[in-house]
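=== RUN LOG ===
request id: a7f3
mode: sequence -> structure
chains: 1
length: 329
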Amino acid sequence: MKSETALTPDALTSETTAAEGFRSLVPALIEAALGRARELENKSDAEDFHKLRIALRRLRSLWWAYEPLLDSQDAELHREQFKRLADAAGNTRDWDVALELFSKKKRTRTSFAELLPALDEQRIRALLLSRATINPAEVEQILQRALDDALEQLARDDSAIKLTQFANERIRSAEKTLRKRLKQAAKSDCDYEALHRVRIAGKKVRYMLEFFLPVLDDSHRTTLEHMAELQEELGELNDFVASENLIRHYASQIGRKTGGRKTGGQNTSERETSGGNTERGKDAGGKDKGARDQATQGDVDDALRWLKRRKRRRMDRAHTLLKRLHAHR
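=== RESULT ===
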């Protein structure tokens, strides 16, 4: 991918303009995203999908930060393209998270080992869809177009605003949104969406601080230091919510792949036993097929109940932390 010769982030100073700052920051971010996309052509590690999603989120945050100096509609379009690619990576990543959660559960009293093969099959399907979307050639084209458009627009900007002033203004805007989200979530004890908005706003502030750290004073660090524990809790809560949504949405496919299939509201064993032939309701090993089907459906239901309980606990803990943080603001 072609890009302008740029400053390195370490070279950012109080004399650096906002446009120079963009040219310094963007090449490494683009190369990180494109590099991960290329790796996924031949690899399917959970960590690779996770890092690709992070790289794309950071790009979205940088385009948001520079929106005042860019064409707003154009910047929004590119952010949406970054989001589409991140969501494609996220689809596979979410199955990886669910598999990890249920794999760890086997170490405790309740095991969901019967569900793991079906979850793994859904993960393989998600991987194929992700790879179809995250085509490196298309990703490179999207990133190059976004870069070219931004550089062209910044070249027309003659304000020469200093990066220090610009960064502080944009971070204050992001922090204002975060404070608003914190206040809203503190008033909503049972609203996951309110908590999720806090998490997203907190990430944006964190990325902004990472971008502009060399030209910032320490006044902005306090927010993230106070938010660190809450952000970790919200991240773990999101894992349980995403996994619950997957299991609930794909319950029929998961049940079918593990034997949990019912027809006309009555399982095979019940229909055949009611006809007087109990032997036909058993499999070759003599195990009652209806009992097997019922147990498999029970595994799915148990998984959903377990996820719901864990989600509720995480939400309670997140609200406790959030209210403590809001009370000290």
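=== NOTES ===
Residues 1-8, 257-295 have pLDDT under 50 and may be disordered.
DSSP finds eleven helices and no strands in the chain.
=== END ===
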